[in-house]
Specification:
There is one protein chain. The chain has 15 helices and eight strands. By secondary structure, it is of the alpha+beta class. The longest helix is centred in the last third of the chain and has 18 residues. The two termini are about 15 Å apart. It has two domains: about 70 residues, no CATH class; about 220 residues, no CATH class. The strands form two sheets. The chain has a four-stranded antiparallel beta sheet. Helix 1 packs across helix 2 and helix 9 crosses helix 10. About 40% of the residues lie in helices and about 15% in strands.
């Protein structure tokens, strides 16, 4: 990819996220998710926005990464959907396959989850969700959730709720069923298993997580596609294509398995992933969601850092293969 000198320095010499973003951008073009020229124009435009904004520092990597992000998503406005800018990079496999009639899953922290449950549902009336997302008496909280039963863990989305801060990342039933089975065999560390396999390294130790089931009809109504580098932004654990040699181009992306990365495994594909536009109540059309409490994350931050550094180097090297 031909870039101007400041960008080349950031993307090729940087030990931060530059190499990962650059590698994923190149790989996405190589596998046919978008034209290479589109990726070049995207990052060059983000850099132009950086140096033309007096509130930003031209040499700041954080400000540049923010410009990369801001070019993809419309600014936040309360109650309004955030749109995805497709001027440069499109939405690969948009609304394909049709997900209607199936169930998909997303992971969110307990604090955010507490804001999306309708006040009129049994879930809200029987469980006191902590405002800060950390139960004061964990055993009592887990017991209250368990007492709901499977039917009680079904709920309607709140009238003012939005799922997805910019977009919503979700995975397939087959990935979730595999993870739940693995966690049961491994002592019930559900949050850690999901963070590891789905590349959720940003959830710090002690963060309580919830698995939420989403009806495919809602995702189809909102719109969905295979994620690309500018959707992930500076996320340390995103990879644009499989770690396996000469993988087939799929309509689903794949996550990076953090544990496999940190342990030095030769391949480290995790689970399936796609992204949907933000989900509003009208997308559900009265359909219920479900949830499973995963508990607190406890994976060693050092292992996740090792995984991120290895992934960055391998993605950067893989751009030529």
């Amino acid at each position: 990819m031909v870039l101007n000198n400041p960008l080349r320095k950031y993307f090729t010499e940087s030990v931060s996220q530059g190499r990962l973003i650059y590698g994923n951008a190149v790989i996405g073009a190589r596998v046919g998710l978008y034209p290479q020229l589109a990726a070049i124009n995207y990052v060059n435009t983000a850099f132009t926005n950086l140096i033309s904004d007096p509130s930003k520092i031209p040499t700041s990597t954080v400000d540049f990464e923010n410009c990369l992000h801001d070019l993809r998503f419309s600014p936040y406005e309360y109650g309004k959907p955030r749109t995805v800018n497709t001027t440069f990079i499109g939405r690969p496999f948009l609304n394909t396959p049709d997900l209607s009639g199936e169930t998909f899953f997303t992971v969110m922290d307990l604090q955010f989850f507490g804001t999306i449950v309708s006040d009129h549902d049994k879930t809200r009336m029987q469980v006191d969700f902590p405002v800060d997302g950390v139960p004061k008496t964990p055993d009592n909280f887990i017991g209250a959730v368990d007492s709901l039963g499977e039917d009680g863990r079904r709920f309607h989305i709140a009238d003012d709720a939005i799922i997805g801060r910019r977009i919503n990342w979700f995975t397939s039933r087959r990935t979730v069923e595999s993870l739940l089975a693995k966690a049961l065999k491994g002592g019930g560390k559900f949050a850690d298993e999901f963070c590891d396999l789905l590349g959720l390294g940003h959830h710090i130790e002690g963060t309580w997580l919830v698995l939420v089931s989403l009806p495919g009809e809602a995702i189809q109504a909102a719109g969905h596609y295979r994620p690309v580098f500018c959707d992930a932004g500076s996320h340390k654990w995103f990879m644009q294509r499989s770690s396996k040699a000469k993988p087939k181009l799929r309509k689903w992306g794949q996550t990076a398995n953090l544990k496999a990365l940190s342990k030095g495994a030769p391949t480290y594909d995790g689970g399936d992933e796609r992204v949907a536009h933000q989900l509003f109540p009208q997308h559900f059309n009265g359909r219920q969601l479900g949830f499973t409490l995963l508990g607190p994350a406890g994976t060693d931050a050092i292992e996740r850092d090792i995984a991120g550094k290895r992934l960055t180097q391998e993605i950067f090297d893989r751009r030529r293969r």
